[in-house]
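Can you give me the bound-state structure? Components:
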Amino acid sequence: MRPVSGLLKPTLLLLFATACTGAETGEGEGTGATGSGASGAGAAAGTGGSSAGSGASTGAGAGAGMSAGGSAGTGAGAGAAGEGAGPPVVPTTDACPTQEVTRTALRRLTRFEYANSVRDLLGVDPSVANALPADEITNGFDNNASVLTVSSLHAEKYVLVSEEIAKAAVQNLAALTSCDAAVTGEEACALEFAKSFGRRAFRRPTTPGDEQLLLAAYAAGRDGGSHAEGIEVMIRAALQSSHFLYRLETTTPADAAARLVPLSPFELATRLSYLIWGSAPDDALLDAAQNGELTSRDQVAARARSMLNDPKARSAIAHFFRQWTGTTRLEITTKLATLFPSFTDELRAAMQAELPAFVEHVIWSADHDLRTLFTAPIAFVSGPLAELYGVTAPAGAAPAMVTLPAEQGRAGILTQAGFLSVQGHPDQTSPVLRGKFVRSMLLCQPPEPPPPDVNVSVPSIDQGGTARERFSAHLTAGASCNGCHLLMDPIGLTFENFDAIGQWRATDNGRPIDVSGEIFGATDPTLEGPFVGVQALAEKLAGSDQVRDCVATQWFRFAAGRMEAQPDACSLGTAQEALAAADGDLIELIVGTTQLDSFWYRSPVTP
Amino acid sequence: MNPLRFTRRNLLRGSLAATAAVPLLDARRVDGAATPPTRLVVFSTPNGTRNNLFWPSGTETDFQLKTITAPLEDYKQKLTFLRGIRLNDSLQNGALGQNLGSEHARGTGGMLTARPLNPGSEFISFGNTTSGWGSGQSIDQYLVDRLDPPTTHKSFQMGVHVRDTEVRARISYRASNQPVPPREDPRDAFSALFSGLMTPGTPGMPGTVDPALERLWAQRKSVFDLNNAETERLLGIVGAEDRIKLQAHLDSMRDVEMRLVGMPGSSGDPSGGSTCTTPTAIDSEFAVDDQYLEAGRAHMDLAAAALACDQTRILTLQWSYSESEHVFQFLDISGNHHAISHDFASSGVNFDAYNRIQTWYAEQLAYFLGKLDSYQEGDGTLLDNTVVFWATEIGESTAHDLELMPYVLAGSAGGRIRAGRFIDYGNSRRDNNQLLISLAHAMGAEDLTSCGDPSGATGPLPNLV
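Here's the bound-state model for the whole set.
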């Protein structure tokens, strides 16, 4: 074992001098969805809305991996470079205008984007994409481009899934193409389909090379088969193409020396489409690109607004919120059946369905105000979730809006049963995970995990007492424990009226629950200080600039498919200002993203 | 189980051969003349161990197993305990001033690569040290490139309820930032491994294969050719870093192409007469928590059969993810594994629970070794011709220790490892680079002298052969 003193980093020493070895209690650092972030976690070290930083410089890809003696070949260990860790980015419009943009690794479609794309391209059931491997999660999000690669397993599934899709799609050829082979001729119809479908699949007009490729695939099905089979093989080929699977941005810039490389209208349309729809552009959007209707920022803003009115936007935007709140992890959340027999697959599914319905309501039916996400005393219930909330079950299977009983003191996303279940243990609540979520994802001050050699086992519920009592050692046992736990537990303990699956309760183990809490170490002074209960917490968070800036930061990471880096200071600052200027209007954040330099430009190609 | 005899009549091939295929029948009939191939299995379980209940007592050749490894008693003479291996300096806490990522994350990414994680801000750990993903190729993938096994699957990754997709959930890397995901649904693994064996007919022999299937293979071939050529063209257009990504894409496409177009490797009866058996089809994903055992058994059965039928020679079998928070309700344990693993107490509920979980994992390994040992190959068994590396991401679980890794090998890699020993390197710790080199030697890549981060020692582990 290493000497303990060697583990302590200056930030922690700054606060508390002694080590936390052998503390009686501690707690696991919990789940990755809320877990990772970046620097600036210490109470004294928070740097504001965005404390995360990733250096502009790229990390070193490893060199040769293995070397054999003699003249034997080497197994190459070289790889794509990761983002290096650098000093924290300080988002500010003072950094404008942007001098350069951060390189984004070539973006492979995520499983979610693939599913939406094939749904919109071909009208097939998107669940066919479930056969693809789950995407690697980085910093809570599934779309970090640096690590989204194509393994052999991906390759196999791209082939097999494309075959299923193509087979389903050609069942109704007339719905795919208006070209009637009996009238126009098979060859002409094949070419027409190569152009029209190819344009949507590759998200730009087809080149003669594309058409040649697609027609060659068509021939592999048509020869000895039928026109429909030809179309089927053409669809497979398009869906296995790098032009479909990756969001290539390779248009040659007019100015070869430009550090800010403008996107082509089609590349811009593609960014817009995956941002707002999580899917490929449709013909109308491609037409707009073609007709020069995406050349000014005002045009793009107007287009973004109209795209938000399309139902496709709803699941795509909700996809961000599901990841941001960590509720995507519901499907792998476990509760002890002996203690929580009601935590069935049906309940889990109802919980899973609530957040998207709630977000959809706030953004499309209510005031699209960030504050409403935190404060609305409503829920969207289906199935067994009604009973959990103590409300009358609505008719129908879809989540329906209900007003929650006032005495429960519920407020927005923070008291949704799904969120509370994910941020909890199998047998009891977790004040730490709940507090850690607020700290990491709402304040952008992710606390460090515990030191490597402390006892992080959760206190047994057999100890009796309330969670505040059971977890008290976090704040009393040692200074280096409470160094971080002061940042989390006094927030998380205010959720204690809700048990490990989010049911309201007045007592814990028969004892009255104290839900008083306090926020320490925030950069926003209005957040600091004591409060009582989750509703009060929600009100504080809703009114905080720090939270508002943090939401913009999280959205920026999701939109960009990477962590922010130094060159993003202007763009991220502008995004935060857009949300601030609109007084927390989430639609303005989404639309504002389309106005950023980081959205309009790419970095030059490094040969 | 259906014994699969190597006659044309019984060599079934089914329409699912879309996903796999076996070689020409005649290539399999070697009549005992062939030397069985050597196989590598990485059997990975999470959350370290407790040294005082893991390491045997006694001498190198006369040793007694302790609580956690007691279930392996039947295979004791086929085990090699390796006491004294550490992760190299680049993976240690601050040894090179790097300290990239948590111990669990570093141990996971470094276990088979002997390399630190990439710098990055993606994953945070104690001390505000952050990291990205793994920074280099893992030994299993090195061996894929180096040995280019003539099997249908160059390597095969299986995951039992891994579920997580963060850095702590990926042990195998094609290259830096290129994690290899495991297959987690045993039905999918079955299909990929065996549906080809159950497809009637012999590819390349006209009239023996379903014409519709041959047509599908030909169409796939066309599509591969067309798209691969286009991706190659793109390599010349994109920047250097994206080129690496597209090259990996192209490599992956080429890797799966052969088996998807009805042209499997020259795999065959590996030992000239042993019994390759196709497992019964699997009809469940075994996805719920309490089916951890069933899911594991399904994967282990498939893994053993895949090795016996020479569908692959390089296989990883990963249980959960590192830092696993799996809940063992079926063992009447209420806390999650990782939390329990950090209880310092030397007795009590968590102490007992942790030991039971570790012992349970040893029981699963014993089951797997039993499976491998049940296949006769020449004078020995499949286990004898395999090296199984029981890996975990950290050492002593209460300390996140990376200085004393609880490593044990099973099998003797066709005689390249003298098994049945408890090797204690004492205080002269060996870097994990050396273990990886030894694994490569065991697999026949005997001229490998160094691998992984250069801070680690070179050359194989002493006293292993």
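A couple of observations. Residues 1-65, 68-84 of chain A have pLDDT under 50 and may be disordered. Chain A touches chain B through 122 residues (CB under 8 Å).
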